Amino acid sequence: MTEVAQTIGENSDPSLLFEAGVADRPNEMYRALRQQCPVARSTSDELPSVYLFDYESVSWALHHPEVFSSAAEALSLGQDQPLIPVQIDPPLHTKYRRLLSPAFTPKAIGELEPVVRSLVNGLLDEFADAGACDFHLQFATPLPSTIFLRLMGMPPDDLPMFLRWRDDTVRPAVEPGDFEGAAAIRAAASKAISAYFQEVIDAARGKHADGLISELVNAEFEGRPLNIDELLGICHLMLLGGLDTVTATLDCMVVYLSRHPERRHQLTQNPALLPAAIEELLRHETPVMVVPRVVKEGITLGGVELQQGDPVLLVIGAANGDETVFEDPDAVNYSRESNRHVAFGGGNHKCLGAHLARLELRVALEEFHRRIPDYRIPDGAEISFSPGIRQPEHLPLIWD
Ligand code: HEM
C-alpha cells in the first residue's frame, strides 16, 4: 500500500482531498477514498457535506438533475446572478443550451483551426530557440485566453485584467482555510467583472459586430431579448470556462508527458495518436477535480442518507479511475477501447466548450511537439498544483 493510502484511517474525512499536496498526484488519494467510502459525509463545517467518489454514483448524479440540482447555491463564486447555463436546472437549462450551442458545434469550432494554429506558432516563436520556457506563463495561459477574447469579440489588450479576475475567482490568494477572505476577494472580482461586461453589453446594443457578446445581445430568447442578468450570467461563466480549464489541462498533460518521455515519443512519432491520447490524459489527469451539486430531494446513495439542501461534490477525478469501469485505470493507455471518462462532466451540463477545448489541446500539442519534441522539467524544480482546478503557478521546461 502507498504512503498516502496508509494515512487514510477508518474515520477519515473525505475533505482530505483538499489537503496540501494532494492535487499534485491525486490518483492515489482518489483510489483510497473511493475504495473506503464511495459515498461519504464530511464533518467539516466549511466544506461541502457529501462527496461521491465512485463512477456509478457520480454518473447517476450527473444524469439526475431532479435530485442533484446545479442551482446557484451549489457553488457561490461571489456573483449576483446564476452562471448560465451551468447553474440552471432543466427545463430552463435546455432552452439556454439551445441558444448557446450553435457557437460551439464541431463545425463552428473547426473553422477556428487556422486561427488556433497561427496563434500557437506565434507563441512558440517567442521561446522555441531559447531552450527554456515557463510553459504555464508563456504558453498554457495566453493560448486559451486569447482565443476566448476573440470568441467573445473583446480586445486582446484586456487580457491581463481578465487573468487577474480569473485568479481572484478560482484561486483567491488567502491562507488555507480563510474562507471569509476568499469570499471577499471573489465578491470584489465578481463586481468588477459585472461592471466590465455591463459596459461591453451596453456598447454592443443595436450594433452587429463579430463575437458571441454581440450575437447574444441581439439574440431572441423565448420571443424577447436576453435581460442584463442573463447576459452577465452567460459572460461570467464563459470567462471562467474559457480561461482556466484549457490552461490547467495543458499544464497537467505536459507535466505528465515530461515525466514519461516514452509516452511523449509515441506522440511525437505518431501525431495521429493525439485525439485518443488527449481523451486518455483527460481521464488520467482530470484537471477539473470536482463539480458541485445540491440535493433537491432526499435520497440514499451508497448507504448514505442525503438530505434536501446538502451540498455535494461529485469527484469526477475519482470516478475516472474507477477500476470497475476502466481496466487497469492507473495505466495511461492510448488505445483504451471504451473511454467513457467524465472529465467534461456528463448529462445535461456536459461541457459546452468540449469541442473547442479538444481543438486547442490537439493543435497546441501537435505544434509544440513538432517544434520542441524533447523537453523536460529541470532537476529540482517543484511543480505544485492548486486543488479544485489543478494548475501550477509555474511550469519550467528546458530542451537542447
Ligand atoms: C479541457 C478543458 C475543459 C474542461 C476539463 C472542462 C470541464 C467542464 C466540466 C467538468 C463541466 C461540467 C460542470 C457541471 O456539470 O457542473 C463543464 C461545463 C461547461 N463548460 Fe467546460 N471545460 C473545459 C473547457 C471549456 C471551454 C473552453 C469552454 C468555453 C469557452 C467551456 C464552457 C463550459 C460551459 C458553458 C459549461 C456549462 C454547460 C452547461 O451547463 O450546460 N468549457 N466544463
The number of distinct structural domains comes to 1
N to C succession of SSEs? HHEEHEHHHEHHHHHEEHHHEEEEHHEE
- Which strand order does the major sheet show? 1-2-10-7-3
CATH superfamily: Cytochrome P450
CATH topology: Cytochrome p450
Helicity level, as a percent range? 40-55%
Question: What is the rounded Rg?
Answer: 21 Å
Overall pLDDT level: 92
Low-confidence stretches: 1-7
CATH architectural group: Orthogonal Bundle
**3D shape:** globular
What percent of residues are in strands?
Answer: 5-15%
What is the top-level CATH class?
Mainly Alpha
* Helix/strand structural class: alpha+beta
**Oligomeric state of this protein:** single chain
Major β-sheet annotation: 5 strands, mixed
Q: Specify the number of helices.
A: 16
Would you count the extended β strands for me? Answer: 12
Distance between the termini: 38 Å
Descriptive overview:
Helix 8 (about 140-150) packs antiparallel against helix 12 (about 230-260), helix 9 packs across helix 12 (about 230-260) and helix 12 (about 230-260) packs parallel to helix 16 (about 355-370). The chain is built from 16 helices and 12 strands. With about 400 residues, the chain is an alpha+beta fold. The longest helix is centred in the middle third of the chain and has 32 residues, at about 230-260. Mean pLDDT is about 90; it is low at about 1-5. It has a single domain, classed as Cytochrome p450 (Orthogonal Bundle).
Topology:
Blueprint: H1 3-6, H2 27-36, E1 39-41, E2 50-52, H3 55-62, E3 68-69, H4 92-100, H5 106-110, H6 113-127, E4 132-134, H7 135-140, H8 142-152, H9 159-170, H10 179-204, H11 212-217, E5 220-221, E6 224-225, H12 228-259, H13 261-269, H14 274-285, E7 291-295, E8 299-301, E9 304-306, E10 311-314, H15 316-319, H16 354-371, E11 375-376, E12 396-399
Parallel strand pairs: 2-10
Antiparallel strand pairs: 1-2, 3-7, 4-12, 5-6, 7-10, 8-9, 11-12
Bound molecules: protoporphyrin IX containing FE.
